[in-house]
UniProtKB/TrEMBL annotation:
Native organism: Brevundimonas diminuta (Pseudomonas diminuta)
First and last residue of the signal peptide: none
Domain FAD-dependent oxidoreductase 2 FAD-binding: 4-540
Domain of life of the native organism: Bacteria
Listed PANTHER family: 3-KETOSTEROID-DELTA-1-DEHYDROGENASE, KSDD-LIKE STEROID DEHYDROGENASE RV0785
Cross-referenced SUPFAM superfamilies: FAD/NAD(P)-binding domain (SSF51905)
InterPro entries registered for this protein in UniProt: FAD-dep_OxRdtase_2_FAD-bd, FAD/NAD-bd_sf, KsdD_DH
Enzyme Commission code(s) on record: 1.3.99.-
GO molecular function: oxidoreductase activity, acting on the CH-CH group of donors
Keywords: Flavoprotein, Oxidoreductase
NCBIfam families the record matches: PRK12834.1
UniProt name for this protein: KsdD-like steroid dehydrogenase MSMEG_5835
Pfam (any one): FAD_binding_2
């Protein structure tokens, strides 16, 4: 079978590339090892966050933003340091990073409206950073959530792919696993692999790997949009960087099992260059899903600024390892502090009042009001006094949650969630009382309490994401809730090195003719446009931007 372009991977990056190609008149074969229910990939499961700069939504909330400020933040977060030498790993990453911030500050919002992606009016302030003007973090809120959450971003492109299939411009090859890139005279000319037995497993659930045949597809070019390695713990451990200490003995999984990274090594075997494989983005606020879809299914808590965060031994985490501040710094602290390295967990202690206002759960299925575009439901759940329904379900049914009316009982129940009791109620009480003593004034010397007051100066957080300052041990704010937190695998920040046209490069820096890459497989562009950190809302945007670049580059070819 011959076609113009083969796209491997039916996630967001692949769908955006397919959209650009089919609308230009190209014929596309879209190949994926999973069934049709999984169209949209990881984006479907996401919160739908999009990084935008100087948007109307920001301005309505009193946020002053600019390309210059965003680019300063991006560079401070990325920390690119593999530069200067010939064939440097960050050579293209820097160029992709700047191009992406220009896109986010320019045409991105209008471009998103064309496939009917709409935004909620609220803008979140994720990754507030390391407390330095030139360090990691967002200086201002930039996390825009799409109506429909992740489905509101992925489904418009999935619909266009289905329309292209009906018109004959696109053919879906579901349950086709690519095992080889076909290389002829130094040029990639297609793919080959095996067909897998039909499987009607629900979206995200594991599917069989029974081989029932083989296939070959010839094409003028191939786009790899196969995602990262977050579902493959063996590969995560293989590339876990020494700077983050030892990987946890047990992690939970924030992506479906088919996010296995296998195409990265297949591409390398065909001559592609992989860079920055030691850069990855895993969250430390993971909890086990009480209604799992895939193995070890994890959900991330997106906390507001008030939860008290303790290590496995019951000590409050130091700045910048605070809720919502610096993901990688917190991960590093928990994995490199000598007496913590043997433990794979940490703890939140919150009041019911904090949980109701400040706990959001990442994922389309955990935010049904936004996913279903129910404005009244959003107003009730986000501005009301009770915890959102999905958060309350985790409190009541989640294996990592315990509730008590007093601290001693709470700590006893928290100790019941570990193999042996590690927490001392008196030590925890002393730290909470020290913190509570800082709550009498609208100013304080405690860095976290300062952050709470700072957060409430931004009207978006004051309305929907930050509870009124209060003492943790105030019975009126209770009951108390303890949450056991795990490391949750999620994103790869490195990958196939690409130029600004999404062409995959070889170890000598020249293009591997006929091969393109987009999305997480390309480190979201250039093999690492995020550098060492991410500013949040940039993963979906990176898939869109790099998929668009790949599609447009090939659409312009004769």
């Amino acid at each position: 079978m011959n076609t113009d372009i083969v796209i491997v991977g039916g996630g967001l990056a692949g769908l955006v590339a397919a959209h650009e190609l089919t609308r230009s008149g190209k014929y596309v074969a879209l190949v994926d090892q999973e069934n049709a229910a999984n169209l949209g990939g990881q984006a479907f499961w996401s919160f739908g966050g999009l990084f935008l700069v100087n948007s109307p939504e920001q301005r309505r909330l009193g946020v002053r933003d600019s390309f210059d400020l965003a680019w300063r933040d991006w560079q401070g977060s990325a920390g690119w340091d593999r530069l200067g030498a010939p064939l440097a790993e960050d050579e293209w990453a820097v160029q992709w990073g700047r191009a992406y911030v220009e896109f986010a500050a320019g045409e991105k919002r209008n471009w998103l409206s064309r496939p009917d992606i709409k935004l909620t009016p609220m803008v979140g302030w994720a990754e507030r950073g390391a407390g330095k003007a030139l360090g990691h973090g967002n200086s201002v809120p930039r996390f825009h959530v799409a109506w429909g959450t992740g489905t509101g971003v992925s489904e418009p492109f999935a619909c266009r792919a289905r329309e292209a299939a009906r018109s004959g411009r696109l053919i879906f090859y579901h349950r086709h696993r690519v095992d080889h890139l076909l290389v002829e005279a130094g040029r990639v000319k297609g793919v080959s692999g095996v067909t897998l037995a039909p499987d009607d497993a629900p979206r995200g659930a594991p599917s069989n790997r029974q081989v029932i045949g083989d296939f070959t597809l010839k094409a003028d070019a191939v786009i790899l949009a196969t995602g990262g390695i977050g579902g493959n713990h063996e590969m995560v451990r293989r590339y876990w960087p020494e700077r983050l200490g030892a990987p946890p003995a047990r992690m939970i999984t924030g992506v479906p099992a088919h996010v296995d990274g296998r195409m990265l090594d297949i591409a390398a075997g065909a001559g592609a260059r992989l860079v920055n494989r030691d850069r990855m983005w895993h969250y430390v606020e993971g909890v086990r899903n009480w209604a799992p879809i895939w193995p070890d299914h994890a959900i991330r808590i997106l906390p507001g600024p008030s939860p008290l965060w303790f290590d496995a031994l019951g000590r409050r985490l130091p700045f910048p390892a605070l809720p919502g501040y610096d993901t990688i710094a917190t991960l590093k602290y928990l994995r490199t502090t000598p007496d913590l390295a043997e433990h794979d967990h940490s703890w939140f202690i919150v009041t019911e009042t904090m949980m109701a206002k400040e706990f959001a759960l990442s994922g389309s299925e955990q935010n049904q009001d936004i996913t279903n575009r129910n404005l009244l439901g959003v107003l009730r759940s986000r501005l009301g006094k009770a915890a959102p329904r999905e958060v309350a379900a985790f409190r009541d049914k989640g294996a990592d949650f315990v509730v008590a009316d007093d601290l001693d009982t709470l700590v006893g129940r928290m100790n019941g969630l570990t193999d042996r009791p590690l927490l001392d109620a008196a030590l925890i009480r002393a730290q909470i009382e020290d913190r509570d003593a800082q709550m009498a004034n609208p100013y304080a010397k405690d860095a976290q309490v300062q952050g709470i007051h700072n957060s409430r100066r931004y009207r978006g957080d004051r309305w929907a994401r930050t509870s009124a300052p209060h003492r943790v041990l105030d019975p009126a704010a209770g009951p108390l809730i303890g949450v056991k937190l795990h490391v949750l695998t999620r994103k790869s920040l490195g990958g196939l090195q690409t130029d600004l046209s999404s062409r995959v490069l070889t170890p000598d820096g020249t293009p591997l003719e006929g091969l393109y890459a987009a999305g997480e497989a390309a480190g979201f562009g250039g093999g690492g446009l995020h550098g060492y950190n991410a500013l949040e809302g940039t993963f979906l945007g990176g898939c869109i931007f790099s998929g668009r670049a790949a599609g447009r580059a090939l659409a312009g070819q004769a």
